[in-house]
C-alpha cells in the first residue's frame, strides 16, 4: 500500500521529531518544515495528501498558510495542532480552511486516528465522479455527497447540519470531541441558542443510529462527545 504523503509544519524540534517518527512508523511519508516562509515552496514540490500545521511559526502563521493552501488545492485536508484554545482561535482556524483542530498536548493515537478518519471522509466527499462512495459506520453506510445514511434497504436523508455533525463525530471516532469545537465548526458560534440546537441534533443522530447497538454517542459532561463505533 502506498504511503500517505503528509506535510508537517512544526517549529518545536523535539515534538516534531517524535511526531514525525511515529507517523513514519504508521505508513505516512512525512515532510517536515519548521519555517513558515518555506512551507509553500515545499508544498508545491511535495504535493501532500494531508497537512498538519502548527499555528505559531517563525515568519508566517499557520492560519495564513492554510488559506493559501486552500486556494491552491481546495479539497486537501488540513489539521491544526496548537496550544491555543480560545474560542476565537478555533473559529479562525476553521475560517482559514482547517478541517480539524487538535490541542497540545495530544496523543499520537488520537492524531493518527483523526488523520485516517479525515482522509476517509474527505475522499468520500470529493469523489465527485462517484457520489455513491460511502464511509462505513458499523452496520450503516454514510454517503457524504448525497446526505444519506443507509442500513440495508433503509435510506434516511440527512439535513446539511445533521451530515456535518456526523462528519465531525466520525473525524474524532473513538476519541472525545469538544462541544465548543462542534458549535464553532457547524454553527459558527458557541452561544446558548446554538448549544441547545446541538442537543437536539445529537438526540436525532442517536435515534438514527440506534439500530446498531455497537454505535454510541456518549456525552462527556462539561467537555463534549465521545463517538464509539464497536
What would your notes on this structure say?
This protein is of the alpha/beta class and 230 residues long. The chain has two domains: 4-112, Rossmann fold, CATH 3.40.50.2300; 131-229, Winged helix-like DNA-binding domain superfamily/Winged helix DNA-binding domain (Arc Repressor Mutant, subunit A, Orthogonal Bundle), CATH 1.10.10. The protein is 43% helix and 24% strand. It contains eight helices and twelve strands. It has a five-stranded parallel sheet, with helices on both faces. Strands 6-7-8-9 form a four-stranded antiparallel sheet. Helix 1 links the parallel strand 1 and strand 2. Helix 4 crosses helix 7 (179-187). The longest helix has 19 residues, at 108-126.
By CATH, the topology of the largest domain is: Rossmann fold
Main sheet strand line-up: 2-1-3-4-5
Computed structural class: alpha/beta
N-to-C terminal Cα separation, in Å?
25 Å
Query: Helical amount among residues, as a percent range?
Result: 40-55%
List low-pLDDT spans. Answer: none
Find the count of extended strands (DSSP E, 2+ residues): 12
Would you identify the CATH H-level superfamily of the largest domain? Answer: Response regulator
Largest sheet: 5 strands, parallel
Mean of pLDDT: 88
Q: Please state the overall shape, judged from the principal axes of the Cα atoms.
A: globular
Element order: H for helix, E for strand? EHEHEHEHEHEEEEHEHHEE
- Radius of gyration from the CA trace? 18 Å
Number of helices: 8
The figure for the number of domains is: 2
Q: Output the CATH class name of the largest domain.
A: Alpha Beta
- Please give the CATH architecture of the largest domain: 3-Layer(aba) Sandwich
Strand content: 15-25%
Amino acid at each position: 500500500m502506498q504511503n500517505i504523503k503528509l506535510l508537517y509544519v512544526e517549529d518545536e524540534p523535539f515534538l516534531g521529531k517524535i511526531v514525525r517518527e511515529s507517523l513514519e512508523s504508521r505508513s505516512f511519508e512525512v515532510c517536515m518544515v519548521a519555517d513558515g516562509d518555506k512551507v509553500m515552496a515545499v508544498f508545491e514540490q511535495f504535493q501532500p495528501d494531508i497537512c498538519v500545521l502548527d499555528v505559531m511559526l517563525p515568519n508566517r502563521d499557520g492560519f495564513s498558510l492554510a488559506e493559501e493552501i486552500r486556494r491552491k488545492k481546495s479539497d486537501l485536508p488540513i489539521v491544526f495542532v496548537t496550544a491555543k484554545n480560545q474560542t476565537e482561535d478555533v473559529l479562525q482556524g476553521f475560517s482559514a480552511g482547517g478541517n480539524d483542530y487538535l490541542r497540545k498536548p495530544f496523543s499520537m493515537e488520537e492524531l493518527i486516528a483523526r488523520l485516517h478518519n479525515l482522509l476517509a471522509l474527505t475522499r468520500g466527499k470529493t469523489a465527485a465522479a462517484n457520489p455513491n462512495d460511502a464511509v462505513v459506520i458499523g452496520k450503516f453506510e454514510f454517503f457524504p455527497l448525497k446526505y444519506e445514511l443507509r442500513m440495508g434497504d433503509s435510506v434516511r436523508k440527512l439535513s446539511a447540519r445533521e451530515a456535518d455533525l456526523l462528519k465531525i463525530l466520525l473525524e474524532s471516532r473513538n476519541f472525545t470531541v469538544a462541544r465548543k469545537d462542534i458549535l464553532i465548526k457547524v454553527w459558527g458560534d458557541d452561544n446558548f441558542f446554538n448549544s441547545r440546537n446541538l442537543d437536539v441534533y445529537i438526540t436525532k443522530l442517536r435515534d438514527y443510529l440506534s439500530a446498531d447497538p455497537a454505535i454510541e454517542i456518549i456525552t462527556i459532561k462539561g467537555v463534549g462527545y465521545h463517538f464509539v463505533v464497536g
